[in-house]
Amino acid sequence: MSPPALKPDPVRADALPGTSRHRRRPLASTTHDDDEELLMSGCLGCSCERAAENESGGDRVLLATRVRHNQRAVRDALADLPGVSEPGPGLIEVRGHDPAWVIRTARAALTSVEADEVRALIPAPHRTDLIAQALTASSLTQLAARAEHADLLPLFEDEETAFHAVYQPIVSLTGDSPLPPAGPGPADVVGYEALLRATGPNGPIMPDQLFGAAADAGWLHVLDRVGRTSALRGAAGWLGDATLFVNFLPTTIYRPEVCLATTERAARQAGIDLGQVVFEVTESERVTDLDHLSRVFDYYRQQGCRVALDDLGAGYSSLNMLVRLRPDVVKLDKEIVGRLPDPSSRAVVAAVVEIAASYGGTVLAECIETREQALSARELGVTLGQGWYFGRPQDRRERQDDGTPHRARPTGVASPREALTRSGDDPAVRVPAPRSGSDREVRA
Ligand SMILES: [Ca+2]
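# calcium ion complex -> structure
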């Protein structure tokens, strides 16, 4: 592999995430009260300060590895550069160069697996806790991603401007009313799922791009917290008694009572009763520690919230999670819903409905795009639906600005609390046993 060109990069050191330009509160200068305040606001892991773990301002880079050929590859890439030394086994020190460029050069010399293994640190000159900084250093992969996506960091400086939630309606599939027609204006809206959107200086940022960058750079903790607070803040004033579904990544919650403090405060400020909120676990297939997730669920329930498992699929792990965690709401994976009324898909839905019914859980079919899918889901005992067939995510800010009133829930439709009741004994929303047969009962 030929070493990358050694020309210093025009990107300045202070463009690296976590540098003073981006920090609102330097960690080194926080007082005890500041620390308390940070903890109360949801812990370092949930706030922008987490991005400051490689805070800089200096021009020194330390790279550490336990793999000999990683060290060799990085050293070769930086071979002709003055200021490069190897002060110890597995350690490379670079002084006097733009850290962002050094990080990128080292990253380019390694495979992705190698770069994951290498720890990288840009020690902050004004900090004296080098050992702590070193022990909590990020991987070279993460630090390189932070340099690459540094343009996203200003978004976190003014979260309320840069981020907002859009809200996709969730409808009741039960009751005597016919299934709503496609398009806006479904009759039986009982709730909304909040989805995070971001706007940068050049316009909207695609969600995939935003979450992909956050995952690479280790900012998911921050983004997840922003997603929860934006969801609650944006629902103030119009939610009424509808249920609000808020996504969260359980791996970003270190300790629920601390990490979820900002979320609880956002709900209070928005005037939203926590009893109206369903927290749904995204990417549930990636959850490996069910005990931890169970503790998070317990905490949410103690606060009066309900919990949901998102993207529940056909795999053993999914059904195992369902049995272990008994979520109040089970959201069926879009692949399964998309294949309805295919017999194999019907069998999976029927199994999930049966398990959920055994403990009083509610099943929701996401990503419904056709009437046929909606009818099939309803016939199988799914009581809630969501998807473009019923309505796309809506930017409620526009609705508020132009004064359009939020359409009231029609009479005869179960209230959200009834529709999502844990006991499930409201006849309008009872989760029936799976059955086969015609769809007469649900025809318009
Ligand atoms: Ca979701």
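# post-check
The domain at 154-442 is CATH 3.20.20.450 (TIM Barrel).
The pocket of calcium ion is lined by residues 193, 247, 280, 282, 310 (CB under 6 Å).
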